[in-house]
């Protein structure tokens, strides 16, 4: 199995070091140097090439959302999992809108954190089951942009719509490439283009918008 490179971004030194030591015992996880602030996180994201960033939402006076925005902008392939003591649902929804693929409480065990990291690296994600329904409801009905989903989807090219349908079907990038006979890089480009046209930041948002506009799993077969 290909090792997964993991960057922990957390200003709580004892917690971050303990987490790094525990995750470092997982044979498939490579734990990179810890980042305690936004500047260090962005520098390490560029030099250490993590596949998954485990991100706290509070970094002293700084916000983890700033790291999330910059990482998603500069390194769109990097998957971000939030690991935080915060329980604010509005912040959770903001994080998902801005590209986070997972949200975990710091009270969760390291075994679950490791599983979510692996899922994120495989293009999956994880949200607490007890809030998943409300998060999806807010993503689906949060603003006028989503309400105009059908009109927005009309701006996509036929190929972008095919890629979006594959996303609705639950396929990862490699599976989309195989289904459509494209390279993974071409699928990445189409995905980035359709997210830009829809003014969205994550696949989860795109899937929510597509389903609100009438797309359903398997409807492209």
From TrEMBL:
Residues 149-214 form the HTH luxR-type domain. Residues 5-121 form the Response regulatory domain. InterPro entries: CheY-like_superfamily, NreC/VraR/RcsB-like_REC, Sig_transdc_resp-reg_C-effctor, Sig_transdc_resp-reg_receiver, Tscrpt_reg_LuxR_C. Pfam families: GerE, Response_reg. The modification 4-aspartylphosphate is found at residue 56. Keywords: DNA-binding, Phosphoprotein, Transcription, Transcription regulation. This is Response regulator transcription factor. It comes from Actinomadura napierensis.
């Amino acid at each position: 199995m290909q090792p997964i490179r993991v960057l922990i971004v957390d200003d709580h030194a004892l917690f971050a070091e303990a987490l790094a030591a525990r995750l470092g015992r997982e044979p498939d996880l490579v734990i990179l140097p810890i980042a305690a602030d936004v500047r260090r996180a962005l520098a390490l994201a560029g030099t250490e090439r993590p596949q998954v960033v485990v991100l706290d939402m509070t970094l002293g006076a700084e916000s983890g959302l700033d790291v999330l925005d910059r990482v998603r902008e500069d390194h769109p392939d990097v998957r971000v999992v939030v690991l935080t003591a915060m329980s604010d649902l509005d912040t959770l929804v903001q994080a998902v809108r801005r590209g986070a693929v997972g949200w975990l409480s710091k009270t969760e065990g390291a075994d679950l954190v490791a599983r979510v990291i692996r899922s994120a690296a495989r293009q999956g994600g994880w949200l607490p089951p007890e809030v998943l329904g409300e998060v999806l409801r807010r993503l689906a009905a949060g603003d006028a942009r989503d309400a105009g989903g059908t009109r927005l989807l009309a701006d996509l090219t036929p190929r972008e719509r095919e890629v979006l349908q594959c996303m609705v079907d639950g396929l990862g990038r490699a599976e989309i490439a195989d289904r459509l006979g494209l390279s993974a890089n071409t699928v990445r480009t189409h995905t980035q283009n359709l997210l830009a046209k829809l003014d969205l930041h994550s696949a989860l948002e795109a899937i929510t918008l597509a389903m609100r506009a009438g797309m359903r799993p398997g409807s492209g077969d």
